[in-house]
Amino acid sequence: MTIPSRARSFDAAAALYAAHRPAYPDALLDALEELSGRPLAGSRVADVGAGTGIATALLHARGAHVLAVEPGDGMAAELRRAHPWIPLVRGDGDRLPLAGDAFDLLTYAQAWHWTDPARSVPEARRVLRPGGALAIWWNDMDESVPWVAEQAARIRALFGADGVSFRTLPAGLDSGFRTRTVPWSRRITLDEHLANLASHSAFLLLGEAGTREFTDRERSVLGALFPDGTVEEPYVVSLHVSVL
User: Residue 222's closest CA among 153, 155, 157, 147?
Assistant: First the structure.
């Protein structure tokens, strides 16, 4: 699977993504303020690769003057439907449709790995004000929990090399990155957990039949572990902030 094809896969499943992907804990936004050295309230923020607006809406709720940047037709339509009060422009991190020296904070929630750092880093430098910050984070299931590790192994066995993460932080930024990990969890139904799995790009590209076959097997495995049908999904958010 190529990165462009994986990125494009979300458009056809934007409603599934919006309904089942996890949000982020308040502690993440607290850490973002601490590492960037500024409050979100009143800050000009561009949320790049905004998707359906999960992070965008939380930034807005904290009082940020947030602008969503999203390239995909389906994801942008879902964002407009759910959050019509948040301004949205079409574009991506490699070609930001934004004025220079205009933003205090540039955020990439689950989205930096869709960019080419040779282009997206200069673009971040261009649009951020002096002292502005680039913030990148990923929200991952916590594989220190045994059942999560076992499920992750089954997913890697299914996809082989395509299941290996291709996420890296850009090198060469003047200040480097300050990093914080934020553990959290959510309680959802088993069906919701499986729908969340199905919203990931590897499964979207696998197709409906292959995804159903895998999730049916997972339902049998996890049903024995969670007989009441409620799953507690443990997560760790890895936040990386560089002040430019």
Answer: 147
